[in-house]
Amino acid sequence: MKKKWLFTPGPTPIPPEASLAMAQPIDYHRSADTVALIKDVLEKLKHVFQTENDVLFLTSSGTGGMEGAVANLLSRGDKVVVIRSGKFGERWSEICTAFGVEVIPIDVTYGNSVDPQTVGRLLTEHPDVKAVYATLCETSTGALHDIEALAGLTRVRPTLLVVDAVSALGADDLQMDNWGVDVVVSCSQKGLMTPPGLAFAALNQRAWNAIEHSDLPKYYLDYRKAYESGLEGSVPYTPAVTLLTALQCALDRICAEGIRNTIARHSRLATATRSAVKALGLPLFAVSPANTLTSIRLPTEIDGKAFLKLMLDKYGITYAGGQSQLSGKIVRIAHLGWMNENDVIVAISAFERGLAEIGYDIPLGAGVTAAQEAFAR
Amino acid sequence: MKKKWLFTPGPTPIPPEASLAMAQPIDYHRSADTVALIKDVLEKLKHVFQTENDVLFLTSSGTGGMEGAVANLLSRGDKVVVIRSGKFGERWSEICTAFGVEVIPIDVTYGNSVDPQTVGRLLTEHPDVKAVYATLCETSTGALHDIEALAGLTRVRPTLLVVDAVSALGADDLQMDNWGVDVVVSCSQKGLMTPPGLAFAALNQRAWNAIEHSDLPKYYLDYRKAYESGLEGSVPYTPAVTLLTALQCALDRICAEGIRNTIARHSRLATATRSAVKALGLPLFAVSPANTLTSIRLPTEIDGKAFLKLMLDKYGITYAGGQSQLSGKIVRIAHLGWMNENDVIVAISAFERGLAEIGYDIPLGAGVTAAQEAFAR
């Protein structure tokens, strides 16, 4: 009896009422019902973003939202600091370079998080830096960055702090207003339990002021047009209507739970998963791991790709593997979105059984036991 | 007993198997199943585009695909001809201007189609024009443009022909290869009977050659990355997976019908609708109307917005109104996508009843009769 379990850091499983909402007859994007829908989801997103700022949305992947945070804020030749600790930090850098923005990179060893002091030193050396582009959870390594500390550096300077919270929003804490983060970008298919196709951004007044002076070309990803339309429950271009209906259902769940509880739940799931991995004697890949996902360094004798294939074929389990130079070397288990303790037990139990199956000597049951003990604490 | 009917030129109704496919548990976008899905839809799209060229897709509205056709093909300061006969031709112009491209506009009276001779004259005057940006069906007016004639002008010159077939693909004929069109852009929520959120582009070798020389900034909407990934059934960024599953179902319907038959069906529905409108004594707004939708100029004594509200509230019918300066002045009835004769009869019958209801003197039943006679021919 085949049954699939998805433990990838996006797309994440969709709650059934959200799935069924998408199967309803589609509505016109200019109808009164859709206007109300857009206003409702944009209001509820403020709760998730922990902000009083308005949130805007685009019909795109998270990367479209990231490009928007470059094209809308900057001008050609502007200088920015980009924290690169994996594939997604590098993406900030690639986008900036594509748009003729000068990048001062801070390269962090994969698995590590940036030292805020390094950022502070660079900002002092280069007072003309327009923005720092950072990542809340570097999904490719599972490392969490100390955004609160970075915001402490930028909010006392004219420099903006732009945070890719694509994978971590709703899982790792990001107090946009309390910490003074200027721009937060995220998307639908991670902590928000909605299929991929929607990107979000929240900007504070400092960021909106910067947009006044930006001369980089933008049209489809124009933040101001998306924001101004959104205030009216409207859109500049036909939006992904079915995804908005699913998002509304998902946001209802998060708002009912309360974002602080949602983050606490993810913390509980992450702690249990890490306890389990340690009990199995395997090393965590991230030094400061996020709540979003747990990255595990595989023993060199294990072929990571073959292991993932076995997990899918025999156990119906999809974990994520490593990307680029980490391919085959790490396994990433997401505990993200529509997940609770039982899901984590399945993820860990199957992980143990898979390792045993390929002949790796682990104490069967030790991971599940450690997770249960963590839940009991 | 409430029942809704959607006659808007996008989103269009979704076939039930496509709706239900979206409600299935979501899959990882790097899974073998999704790789096969992407390869399958890209292959089937070639049939709809009537081309041997590969088709690429983006997770965006149609406008994202249009921006791609500017940002990927051109360089700063390039000169292009843009045919502007409504909101969507004007969009080409706005995108070009946003990217620093010089626009030579051809302004066509709303409701009219461009005279190919005007385009030919301009191309002779300006031999350095890099591309002509045209629209197959100008959705804001319902006018069809003679793309075959335009292609006759560009294919003997180094100038590219880029066609916005966003609303008309699958409804109005566009023989990309036979006519020699260089770039065709479309999207999911019109003739392709899929919810909004996917854009498509097909490019011939001339267009790919032009991409080599383009220096406009692009990242998220990079055609080459989308194309090269697509060949492997992959994507540069997380795609709208649920929309791809719906698209596959919709494409199966079109491929089973055969694109020539699909277009013939739309022609039949459009002819019947136009016959009905004439029989009711109302003027068509477009001089050369498209198969995609029928635009009707309302008598000045009718308040178009109040009429549309009545139609929705009392009859559950959504037509589209006019946009910008045509607001309240025209009604647009789409016969697009998952539509057959019975749908058109509903659209016309309700239109008659609504007009009578607001006290406009029309011969009740004349429209439906004319449509039935058209079907019988």
Report on the structure:
The structure is a homodimer of 377-residue chains. In chain A, 44% of the residues lie in helices and 15% in strands. By secondary structure, chain A is of the alpha/beta class. Chain A has two domains: 124 residues, Alpha-Beta Complex (Aspartate Aminotransferase, domain 1); 242 residues, Aspartate Aminotransferase, domain 2 (3-Layer(aba) Sandwich), CATH 3.40.640.10. In chain A, α3 packs across α4, α11 runs parallel beside α13 and α12 crosses α13. Chains A and B meet through α1, α3, α4 and α10 of A and α1, α3, α4 and α10 of B.
Topology:
2 copies of one chain form a homodimer.
Chain A: E1 5-6, H1 16-22, H2 32-48, E2 55-59, H3 62-71, E3 79-84, H4 87-98, E4 102-107, H5 116-125, E5 131-135, E6 137-138, E7 143-144, H6 147-154, E8 160-164, H7 176-179, E9 183-187, E10 198-203, H8 205-213, H9 223-231, H10 241-257, H11 259-279, E11 293-297, H12 304-315, E12 317-318, E13 320-321, E14 330-334, H13 341-357, H14 366-376
Parallel strand pairs in A: 1-12, 3-4, 3-5, 5-8, 8-9
Antiparallel strand pairs in A: 2-10, 6-7, 9-10, 11-14, 13-14
Helix pairs in contact in A: 1-10, 2-10, 3-4, 11-13, 11-14, 12-13, 13-14
